[in-house]
Amino acid sequence: MVSVAVDGRRPDRSSEERIDEIRRKLEGVLGVPATEGNQVDVLRNGDEIFPAMLEAISGARHAIDFLTFVYWRAEIGTSFAETLSERARSGVRVRVLLDAWGARPIDHGLIDMMQDAGVRVRWFRPLHRLQPTKLNHRTHRKVMIVDEEIGFTGGVGIADEWRGDARNEDEWRDTHFRVRGPAVDGLRAAFLDNWLETETELYDPAIDRFPQQPQPGEAVIQCVRGASEAGWSDMSTLLLALLQLAEQRVRITTAYFVPGEELIERLCVAGDRGVKVEILLPGPHADKRFVQQAGQSVFERLLRHGVRIWRFRPSMLHAKIMTVDGLVANVGSANFNARSTELDEEINLVALDPALVRLLDEQFDDDLDRSEEIDADRWRDRSLRRRVLEGLTKPLRHKI
């Protein structure tokens, strides 16, 4: 875990001007103001992420709001349920929102434990109550807010697969942010946005204080929510805007890479403009082979335009990170695929902070050292069987 808020170095004037330009354009195309003075801690892998989250829960005094897509039958799931229950018994208001599809493997004994302790557990879009047209629209957000002061978001789910430090195939690679400052309000809104589908109480005046947020750091952060069923979401706009704004380098880490035609075209255009486009994807331990094959179907086209692609070897790569020109980072729950841009509820934080981006780029380089780059010539000569398997995914690419 590394905090970037204490880094006293400031970018030179030209970088400051560029940051202001990027901020203004992102605010303009998304209509979402950025907030200043945020402190961001980068949490890498379960060894850092889970202790930080559990520590925050244990220290809660007033309220905990917790939203996740994945909550599987696991030891770490028991740890979270026990800690949340202990806080609820101590008088803390605890709300837990689980996606009815992603969290269906949960041990229901844990739900009973939490509810008996006073935790308000709700299911987002229960499968038995939905119209068939809504079954495929889920909340993929991962959000936790403690005492309206500390927020967490990123890619991690509550399952033992995320424990450890990505040393082997049993320890998934992921990144989470811990945030203090005005951006916490944006994370609260992302939670409430989904919670209000299950309850109509917006807030409790006896608990929710809506404090004036402090400004403990230097990071400028924009909270971008992706909404399901919109056809075109702010998440799509965000990804396209970042690719268009890039002048030197784009680095993308994503678990599920099945971009739509608009994103494919923008990646190719960036490569043609001389932007260094580098993409890091899961390798031999990908958890969804069909999705991996669907993404591979566009490799040849991207490689022709100078895009470089690597596959992470030690374990399943589940992080969702994008950095641009060493100045801006985009981290959250959204992948580079149609599910995230068109179908699911997502939340990402766009951080304009060179120190933070420098750290994320260093971690990207470390991940590349444990990855294998796709050779354009060898990929062009891949077998007919592989091409056929990739082709079979075409009818479903807009759904995965």
Molecular structure report:
This protein is of the alpha+beta class and 400 residues long. The strands form two sheets. It has a 16-stranded mixed sheet that branches. It has a two-stranded parallel ribbon with strand order 11-16. The chain contains 13 helices and 18 strands. The chain has a single domain, classed as Endonuclease, Chain A. Helix content is 36%, strand content 23%.
**CATH homologous superfamily title:** Endonuclease Chain A
- Rg is 20 Å
How would a textbook summarize the main sheet? 16 strands, mixed
CATH architecture tag = 2-Layer Sandwich
Derived from helix and strand composition plus strand pairing, the structural class reads alpha+beta
General form: globular
The percent of residues in helical segments reads: 25-40%
First-to-last CA distance: 32 Å
| Poorly predicted tracts of residues | 4-10
What fraction of residues sit in β-strands?
15-25%
Remind me, CATH topology?
Endonuclease, Chain A
Put simply, the count of helices is 13
